[in-house]
Amino acid sequence: MVIPKSRWLLLTVLLVPFFTGTLARRGQDVHCGACRALVDEMEWEISQVDPKKTIQKGSFRINPDGSQSIIEVPYSRTEAHLMELLEHVCENMKAYGEKIEPDTRRKTYVRVLSRDGKRMDASNTNIERDAISDLKFTCERIVEEYEDELIEFFSRETNNVKDKLCSKRTDLCDHAVHIPHDEL
Question: How far is CA 84 from CA 26, 66, 78, 107, in A?
Fold first, then answer.
């Protein structure tokens, strides 16, 4: 059976917006999931630094009065430490899995490995290499594109960094109003 060109055109007109919207939403889901996972991982890494560990900041020049303008600041939120964390934080995406919410058909990302390497409940979670590779790659792109914003947000303690950074500042999660704060 041969389908006339007019039917193909009609079929194309009807299906292209559906697939385009679906692909765009999937892309947005992985961008939002990567951003939210990135924030969780950065916050955890920062919390692991000894609060007593400090670094000297300021000028090492001697002022006319013989003093120096050096202050000690907590190391955990210094630009040097944050840059170090950003270099490897996306490796932690290997500990995540992809879930598809049955009601909304949106992708979310959850930890499937605990911080000490033990396997957590991964039922109904896609842990295939492609899904995790996509999440890691997207995380790396976010770090590259939004490095200044990430350092700005993490250099000072801020409440709701996920919402402020992933939704308001970067628009990576325009649907995040519906995502619980502790989802990842």
Answer: 30, 34, 10, 29
